[in-house]
Amino acid sequence: MSIWKKPISLQALQDAQTNTAASHLGIEITEIGPDFLRGRVPVDARTKQPFGLLHGGVSVVLAESLGSMGAYHACPEGHHAVGLEINANHIRSATQGWVTGTARAVHIGRSTHVWQIDLVNEDGQLTCTSRLTMAILAPR
Length: 140
Hints:
- 21% of the residues lie in helices and 39% in strands.
- By secondary structure, the chain is of the alpha+beta class.
- A six-stranded antiparallel beta sheet has the order 1-2-4-5-6-3.
- A hairpin with a 3-residue loop joins strand 1 and strand 2.
- It is globular and about 45 Å long.
């Protein structure tokens, strides 16, 4: 059963990122499932820190982008989702290729959502795990 309450498509998600931090970092939305969103970020000159590793902040941008889009599309028409809190545990570094994130709802409530976003490298190894809490705002 799908959790999406608003129309959702890969093209619409990509279009919404135009001229945003996510687009400047090369983040791509790659898959929509019945209860998850998946996207990826390249590990390149835009996204590495001075020691050649994927910047931890970029992992958080990917996580928050996926969780925020998921929360927005999983809340009723007319409602909006805004971030309340995010945390991230950086488990393993990435130095090349792509890091892929999968966002799944842990809790979808009337006024809050909690999303779990796990990021993996191209070998499927966990690089970061993040938890995002979103406030759901009713129409004014």
